[in-house]
Amino acid sequence: MQASAQGYALALENITCTFASRENRAARYTAVKDTTLRIAPGEFVSVVGPTGCGKSTLLNVGAGLLQPSSGAVTVFGEKLDGINKRAGYMFQAEALMPWRSALDNVTAGLSFRGVPKDEARERGEEWLKRVGLGGFGDRYPHQLSGGMRKRVGMAQTLILDPDIILMDEPFSALDIQTRQLMENELLDLWAAKRKAVLFITHDLDEAISMSDRVVVLSAGPGTHPIGEFAIDLPRPRDVAEIRSHPRFVELHAQIWGVLREEVLKGYQQQLTAV
Ligand SMILES: Nc1ncnc2c1ncn2[C@@H]1O[C@H](COP(=O)(O)OP(=O)(O)OP(=O)(O)O)[C@@H](O)[C@H]1O
């Protein structure tokens, strides 16, 4: 392991991911190339980049769900081998089990870990309250709104108290108001526990308003970081209000200056791939 990876909650070191090309199975496609991404304990880092550039690929590598073609992953200084057990995930698609009530969804991970039923129930109810769903524990996912289901998903992830939280566009399916409420809730929960967060998003406003640091990825193939920005905005933040802060506007212009061309490249690639 590289000494430089020490002291980080999650360190992706010189990661390259090559896949069999979807168009021509004999050809190879290098989605991510020589990418290093490190997240300190308690740090909130967002990764932005054009569509299809390799954001989810990197997150999957950090989760231990995808083995990189080369490079190494360390978790609190230890080489990751298999699934990242110190991480909790929240993906764009919902991971709720439709046949389980909200409470049973929230406590699923605890039950899986052998936590006694009564204790799991008590902790589950506490978490439902924390995400504003006290009293909704017996509802099934189809009886909840999209925003409520996301809250259940967030409680389901956070109840396990992971040291690292990996989020892949968790709120992108929500309307803007619900989305901002959820972003603020996530920030409150994060501020209380200060876990390391790797947050993947398309949305630069979302990235800036929530993060300590924003990493910009290039368009593929061979995606790699092309810019990194410390977000020196005051906390606590309200994600809607912070957008009118002069420093937010400044940071947005700076980052967009780097991201814009890559987004155009990514868009062109999508058009030619159709
Ligand atoms: N298992 C796989 N096999 C072949 N190609 C893959 C595989 N997984 C990802 N890719 C390709 O790697 C590239 C990066 O994909 P990835 O899903 O990581 O991008 P992304 O930035 O998360 O995309 P989006 O912004 O659309 O969510 C894409 O071109 C994708 O088609």
TrEMBL record:
InterPro entries: AAA+_ATPase (IPR003593), ABC_transporter-like_ATP-bd (IPR003439), ABC_transporter-like_CS (IPR017871), ABC_transporter_ATP-bind (IPR050166), P-loop_NTPase (IPR027417). Coiled coil: none annotated. The keyword Nucleotide-binding applies. Gene3D superfamilies: P-loop containing nucleotide triphosphate hydrolases. Keywords: ATP-binding, Cell inner membrane, Cell membrane, Membrane, Nucleotide-binding, Transport. Belongs to the ABC transporter superfamily. This is ABC transporter-like protein. It comes from Caballeronia telluris.
